[in-house]
Amino acid sequence: MSNNLLEVTKEIKIDHDNVRDLFDRFKAATDLKEKAILANTLVREMAIHGDAEEVSVYNDYSVLGLGDTAAHNKEEHAEIKRLVEAADKTSVDKPEYTDVIERAVTTFLTHAKEEEDDQHPLIRAKLSPEDNDKLARAFLKARKMVPTRPHPAAPQTGGLAQKAAGLQAHVHDKVVETVTGRDFAPLRFSHPEI
To answer: How far apart are CA 49 and CA 15, in angstroms?
Structure first.
């Protein structure tokens, strides 16, 4: 049974690694259509990741003695969401397009490294394997229900208001993606199905 237990920091790092990989592919791309597809995917992955952490993982930080860290992370997420929204709204044919995408991704990756280096070891040390699995599953479930685009004006509390707004925005975002014909790049790393 213990071999089937998930580990929340591994699931979070999968997201971080996908953003790193997508960003490398974005920087290497020369075709504007390919850059747009990679940027769409970066925006989607950063938006999903941030909200999923807020409505699942960060809610347990106070129990782990990391309440101040959760508040700090949510502040950083708010800034990342503003930058990702700017990236989402900038057209691929604008001269500043690459700079706007790079600013959003660089800020995200700086935050990710801080989590991986400073917070993840503490989480692993403080959670039992069963609690770690429970939190990992909550994070993966949240990924399926949160918005797929950034909404920096939406509630950022991690509580019921953010969850309710997120469900509504999730549906809205799927419609927008369908109507606008957004294409997405395949991800290199994947989460387990739960």
So the answer is: 7
Task: Reply yes or no on whether the pLDDT at 165 is more than 80.
Answer: no
CB 191 within 8 A of CB 140: yes
Contact 50, 137 (CB under 8 A): no
DSSP, res 187: P
The pTM is what? 0.86
Tracing tokens 């993982």 back to the chain, one arrives at 57
Q: What span, in angstroms and rounded, lies between the C-alpha atoms of 98 and 102?
A: 6
Provide Rg for the chain, Cα atoms. Answer: 16
Quick: pLDDT tens for 46-55: 999 998 998 8
**What per-residue string of b and e applies to 38-64 under the rule 16 or more CB within 10 Å gives b?**
bbbbbbbbbbbbbbbbbbbbbbbbeeb
Helix (H) / strand (E) containing 134: helix 129-143
Whose structure tokens read 């997120």?
166
| Residues found in the chain | 194
CB 161 within 8 A of CB 155: yes
Q: What is the pLDDT of residues 126-161, one digit of tens each?
A: 999 999 999 999 999 999 988 887 755 554 554 444
Q: Which amino acid is at 51?
A: D
CA dist 26 and 34 (Å) reads 8
